[in-house]
Predict the 3D structure of the following.
Amino acid sequence: MRSKSLFRTKEIITKMSNPSEFDQSYQDSSFIVVRYAIETKHRQLSQVIENIAFGMSVGTEHLVRNGHTELYYPTTFDPSFKSEIMYVQSVTARKVLVDIALNPKVMDIELCGVPLLLNFIAGDTFGSAYGAEYIKLIGLHLPSSILETFPGPQFGLNGIREIVGTRESGRPHLGLLLKPNVGVSAEFYANIAYEAAMGGVDFIKEDELLVNPTICPLEKRVQAITTALKQAHDRTGATVLYAPNITSNPWKLKDLAHLVIRLGANALMVNFVALGFAPVQMLAQDSSIEVPIHLHRSMHDIFNRNPTGISLDVITQLARLVGGDQIHVGPVIGGLYSSDEVIRYTSLLKRPMEHINSSMPVVSRSSTEAIRPTIEMLGQDVTILTDAEVYQHSKGIRDAITEFRANIEQVVGYSNSRSL
C-alpha cells in the first residue's frame, strides 16, 4: 500500500455526510478501512492520528515517567503490517474524520472473528495514551477476504418472506412485541399470540427481559404460545414467525435453541449487544439450527450515544455479518435517532455485500401515524413492530392488529382478501 501523508489537500474528503459510505476507490481494496471521528483539545491532531495508526497495528510502547505516560514507536517490524492513514477531513480546528487502512494479514479472522477485529479497531485504540479526548468508530469497510469468513443471515429478508408467504405481495410485515415484559403467566402470553395471529400479525417477539422467570418458565411459555399459534394457523392458514428470547450464557445457547425449536418455535431471538457477536455467529453457522435469528440491540446506547464509542452503523453492519436475519433499526418517529440515521441503518442491512444475504430491518415502537412515513422512508422490505397501540385499543388485540395491518396494506396498495 502506498503511504500517504497527513492533510494532502488534493486527497481530502470534501464531503462525508454518510459515515458508513466509503469512496468508490475503496470498494476493490484488499485492506480493512476504518473511519474514526477524533477530537483533541491539547495535542496536535496529526500526532494523535499517527499514534492511533501505530497503536491499532504494530503497536506502541509506553513508559510512565514522572507521573506521565511517554509513548514510543517500535523500530523493528514488517512495514506492511503497519496501518496507513488514507484520508483526513477537518470538521473543526480540533476535530477530524479520518480513514485508516489495516492490512488483513495482521489477523486470522476466520479463527478469531469479530472479537479480534474489535480488538484491533476499537480496543486500546480508545485508550488515553494516544492523546484523543474523544474517538468514535463511525465506519468500517471490509474487503472480500474478510467478508468471505462470515456466514451472514441464513435466511435473510427473502428467506423470511418465503416462510411468512409474502414473496409475491412484497408488503411490509407487521410485528407485535409481547407485553408486559415479565410478571404474567405463559397462558397470558399465549392468548395475546392467538388473538394477534387471528388479527393477521406476521411476527411475534418477546421482550429482552423475558427469558426464564419463575412465573413463566421458557419451556412452558414456548409450548403454550406455539400451541396457540398452531390453533390460529389451522383457522387462517397463515404462518406467524415467533421468536422466543433465548439470550443466556453462551454455553447454554445451543441447548435452548434446540429446545424451543423442538417445541415449535420457528425463529430465535437474542440480544446480541449483551450476548456478543461470536455467539450469534455460532448459532448462525450451526446446520442443525434451521430457523431465522432475530437480533435485538438493547444496551447499544452505551456504545453509540457518547462521543467516545462505536456508532450504530458499525454495530448494525457487524450484526448482519454474523448472521442476523432480522435486526432492529429503531423507530422512524419518536426515537432518539433521526430518520436519516434510521434510513442509514436500514441501508446497511439491505445493500449488496457479496455473498451476504440482506437482513430484514425491524422498526420498533411503531404506531398508526408512523406507518406511512416508515414505508416512504424505508420501503416495503421492513417489519413494522408495534406494542402499546395494540394493547391500548378499545376493541382488543385482534381488532387492533386487523386495523394496523389494513393501514399498512392501504399505504402500499395491497388488497387482502382474508376472511375469518
